[in-house]
Amino acid sequence: MVGGGGGYQGEDGGEAGDGAVGEIGGAAAGSGRLGIIENKDLLNRITALYTKDFPWIISLNDNATSLLMNSLIPYLAAHLQLDAHDNMKVTNFEEVLKQSQMRILLNELNLWQNNAAAYERGIEDCEKIIEEIGKEVK
Q1: Residue 5 falls within a domain, yes or no?
Q2: How far apart are CA 103 and CA 110, in angstroms?
Q3: 51-74 residues labelled b (16+ CB within 10 A) or e (exposed)
Q4: Is the pLDDT score of 3 beyond 60?
Q5: pLDDT, tens digit, for every residue of 46-100?
Q6: CA 3 to CA 44: how far, in whole Å?
Q7: Cα R_g (the chain), whole angstroms
Q8: Is residue 102 assigned to a domain?
Q9: How far apart are CA 22 and CA 28, in angstroms?
Q10: What pTM was estimated for this model as a whole?
Q11: Domain containing residue 68
């Protein structure tokens, strides 16, 4: 979990989050920019944001976007029927919602709740880090 400098955990229990943001964290650390931070706990928490937490959030977003673009939207486009006189009115929405594949897709969309929770934890961690930096600077 975020908080205390730990990363998000994947479904297999291992830490998730490799990618471009992780590379940014590594680049920041390699540039010496983080070397000015004397508080090791604060440094570890900042590094964890870039190497674990942000990549995990990006991974969640990528999964949700992929599901939406590759599964849900095509499924709805193939199964929803629009009213002949009002193309903004769906005539068979309840029917489509009752179909097994649609229920499975909606269940998979619960991962968006995970996205929101990951963002909330990330924002909370950022706020705590900013607060700690404020204390360090004074």
Answers
A1: no
A2: 11
A3: bbbbbbbbbbeeebeebeeeebee
A4: no
A5: 999 999 999 999 998 898 889 889 999 999 999 999 999 998 899 999 999 999 9
A6: 11
A7: 21
A8: yes
A9: 10
A10: 0.62
A11: 20-137
The verdict on residue 92 lying in a domain is: yes
C-alpha separations of 64 from 9, 74, 125, 132 in Å? 17, 14, 23, 33
User: CA 13, 14, 15, 18 torsion: positive or negative?
Assistant: negative
Whether 81 and 92 have beta carbons less than 8 Å apart is answered as yes
Q: 20 CB contacts (<8 Å, ≥6 apart)?
A: 55, 58
Residue 109 has which token pair?
Answer: 């969309």
Tally of domains within the chain: 1
Torsion sign, CA atoms 73, 69, 7, 135: negative
Asked if the structure places residue 13 within a domain, the reply is no
User: Is residue 117's pLDDT more than 60?
Assistant: yes
